[in-house]
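We were asked to recover a plausible sequence for a given structure. The inputs and outputs are reproduced exactly as logged, with field labels preserved.

PROBLEM: sequence recovery
POSITIONS: 344
GIVEN STRUCTURE:
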């Protein structure tokens, strides 16, 4: 059966037409799902019993079960969700002074193989559907009763490797008759799938694009991120420049600092050279050590020096606040254990 949350509003209208129903019913259903956040068709009380039965016959609601919930000292909450097919994914809710931000997964597992990332320890299983991406937000809002204002695609998976479902999920999130999360409050993070960056530039979705850069020479970047062999730095930067030109939007470059690997003065100089003049921002992340990983965090003083060097040389750089590291909810720590959940 199909998941009703996989459809954006226009598609849902078409589904209703196929069921020989009026299209305004789609708007009612959409409101029940995303504003009232009901968990069953029976709760949609302004819809006739007949139609509710039809809906039940044709669609599932895909309500995730919470397998595990961990709360960090800093208030960050990590969820392990049962995605109803024996698999599980992680989602993280973070609280900032400007509101609540959620870090969603886009795939079960990841194909990218970044050496410093915990998601690399698991095999790729499958893409999440649009509805499964949206459900992470719904399930967390249902559980916590907070309103989530920002969404970042920085959980498990490579969002641009699940392009269509991610874009459709954004259309569902954006809809004012639904969750009404504006594209400007959504960030897509990519390890650098160049053709998809060009494609995204054509979408007319004003979301933030984050690029996981992490190194400034191909030799170093390829050692950290095998995807660099397919799309080396020059091609990546060219795509980023084209994206900025097309969208007039600032790109955010992620740079995880690993001690004596990519954190010396040469690296800082390399970044200045690479990014000078671009409409961009650098997000420095103290690298989080993962099980069996060889990269360790640079010292705080060193990270500050690195940031200051960039700022002094015309590159806007900030250090990302670390949230949830005590519950393995920080960047790159998502899901090594428990990914495959046995329902039986
Ligand atoms: N596949 C996407 C999104 C998921 S990772 C991407 O690569 O961008 C989200 C961010 O966390 C990326 O910038 C990623 O490089 C970073 N990251 C992964 N492992 C990390 C670690 N151990 N420490 C710090 N950041 C890490």
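RECOVERED SEQUENCE:
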């Amino acid at each position: 059966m199909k998941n009703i949350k996989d459809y954006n509003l226009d598609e849902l209208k078409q589904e209703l037409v196929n069921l020989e129903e009026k299209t305004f019913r789609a708007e009612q259903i959409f409101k029940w799902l995303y504003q009232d956040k009901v968990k069953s068709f029976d709760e949609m009380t302004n819809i006739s019993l007949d139609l509710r039965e039809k809906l039940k016959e044709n669609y599932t609601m895909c309500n995730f079960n919470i397998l595990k919930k961990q709360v960090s000292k800093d208030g960050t909450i990590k969820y392990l969700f049962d995605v109803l097919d024996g698999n599980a994914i992680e989602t993280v809710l973070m609280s900032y002074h400007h509101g609540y931000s959620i870090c969603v997964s886009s795939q079960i597992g990841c194909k990218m193989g970044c050496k410093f990332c915990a998601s690399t320890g698991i095999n790729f299983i499958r893409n999440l559907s649009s509805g499964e991406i949206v459900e992470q937000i719904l399930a967390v809002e249902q559980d916590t009763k907070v309103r989530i204002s920002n969404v970042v695609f920085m959980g498990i998976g490579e969002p641009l490797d699940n392009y269509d479902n991610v874009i459709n999920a954004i259309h569902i999130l954006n809809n004012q008759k639904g969750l009404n999360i504006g594209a400007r409050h959504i960030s897509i993070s990519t390890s650098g799938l160049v053709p998809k960056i060009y494609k995204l530039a054509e979408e007319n979705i004003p979301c933030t694009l984050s690029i996981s850069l992490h190194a400034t020479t191909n030799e170093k970047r390829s050692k950290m991120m095998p995807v660099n062999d397919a799309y080396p730095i020059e091609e990546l930067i060219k795509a980023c420049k084209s994206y900025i030109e097309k969208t007039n939007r600032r790109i955010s470059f992620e740079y995880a600092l690993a001690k004596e690997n990519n954190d010396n003065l040469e690296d800082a100089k390399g970044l200045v050279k690479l990014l000078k003049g671009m409409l961009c921002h650098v997000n420095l992340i103290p690298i989080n050590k993962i099980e069996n990983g060889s990269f360790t965090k640079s010292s705080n003083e060193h990270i500050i020096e690195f940031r200051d060097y960039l700022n002094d040389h015309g590159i806007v750089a900030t250090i990302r606040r670390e949230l949830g590291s005590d519950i393995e909810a920080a960047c790159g720590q998502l899901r090594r254990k428990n990914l495959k959940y046995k329902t039986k």
